[in-house]
Specification:
Elements: E1 2-3, E2 13-20, E3 36-42, H1 43-50, E4 65-67, E5 73-75, H2 76-85, H3 92-95, E6 97-103, E7 109-112, E8 115-118, H4 122-143, E9 149-157, E10 165-168, H5 186-193, H6 201-212, H7 219-234, H8 241-253, H9 257-278, H10 289-309, H11 313-322
Helix pairs in contact: 4-5, 6-7, 6-10, 7-8, 7-9, 7-10, 8-9
């Protein structure tokens, strides 16, 4: 800690990241992340602290207000600015709050009058935060269903409210599906967040397919990408690709022979639907939302299994190739 004297003006800098499609249940994950914490700000706090994030001028005023479903009064001008920014899902209207990730661990701090303030290399801390947010988002997506995305990471001067630096995240679907926090998966999340994900090239390609599915609006294209991700995990040659993908996927999620047979038929049908769409017969496809959700969850489980197995694609293939039908 560096002790410094009093200043007439102290520039207090903090780093935040705004998350979209999450609710306050994500605060339960704070005990698993180090150097950062999810924080909840109600809309009055967001308006006071972060109005410049939404490109609003100093001392702006609005004469129009409306009431949300839960009876809270909302500033229409402020809410319109949030909507135009596309940094948050529209659910903030009724939740009456937003979720930010706050960076709380800095390499260099200073103490003024007994209080700690950041005085480090902002570029370094921002870069580290940006990289951590990508890792955190990946771990959230691999653990819990929902279209979560980190929309912007920014440096803010708490005194002037100025935001001199901001990094925007990748795009996301306009459809709003809140991250579904399941406490039974906390251990899995903890295992992922505490270590770097493997950098094996084939796995990186699969993760790229999986993440791309979060950015696509057209459901059929999203479905194609998810099946392609599944193929990138389980197929190892050009021979019997449909059979191999369906067989190995079914072995992953089945506990009995009957379950295996049912899953095999379902996955093979989904794979055939993907092929039919690619080859121009999309009008004959009847694809349900539950089919896409099933495929997404299957890809999620397959990636987690691959990570935990700690092997390359050839070894992953050999593992399932040796397995028989479960009894």
């Amino acid at each position: 800690m560096v002790e410094i004297g009093n200043f007439n003006e102290l520039f207090m800098l903090k780093i935040y990241t705004l998350f979209r499609n999450v609710d306050e249940s994500i605060l339960k994950l704070n005990k698993y992340i180090k150097g950062y914490q999810f924080v909840k700000f109600d809309l009055l706090e967001v308006k006071d602290r972060f109005f410049k994030l939404f490109n609003l001028p100093n001392n702006f005023t609005s004469q129009e207000y409306f009431v949300n479903y839960t009876g809270q009064e909302l500033d229409r001008y402020f809410c319109d600015a949030i909507n135009w920014s596309k940094l948050s899902d529209s659910g903030f209207f009724n939740r009456y709050y937003m979720i930010f990730l706050e960076t709380i661990d800095y390499d260099v701090k200073v103490k003024v009058d007994g209080k700690e303030y950041f005085a480090g290399d902002t570029n370094s801390v921002l870069y580290v935060t940006h990289e951590y947010v990508k890792h955190l988002t990946q771990c959230l997506r691999l653990t819990f269903p929902g279209y979560t995305v980190a929309t912007v990471t920014f440096l803010i001067n708490l005194s002037s409210k100025e935001i001199p630096i901001r990094f925007y995240g990748s795009g996301s679907r306009n459809e709003e599906k809140i991250l579904c926090i399941d406490e039974s998966k906390f251990e899995q999340f903890n295992n992922l967040i505490q270590k770097k994900l493997p950098i094996e090239n084939d796995l990186l390609l699969t993760l790229e397919y999986f993440n791309t599915s979060y950015t696509l609006e057209y459901d059929l294209v999203r479905f194609i990408i998810l099946i392609t991700a599944l193929e990138s995990i389980f197929s190892f040659s050009r021979d019997q690709i449909t059979h191999t993908v369906a067989r190995h996927s079914s072995l992953l999620i089945s506990n009995t022979k009957e379950e295996f047979q049912n899953n095999y038929s379902k996955i093979k049908k989904l794979y055939d639907q993907r092929s039919s769409f690619i080859h121009g017969t999309k009008n004959k496809i009847s694809l349900l939302e539950e089919d896409i959700d099933f495929t997404e969850e299957l890809v999620r489980k397959a990636i987690i299994f691959w990570i935990n197995l700690g092997e390359n694609k050839q070894q992953l293939f050999n593992y399932f190739n040796r397995l028989g039908y479960p009894e």
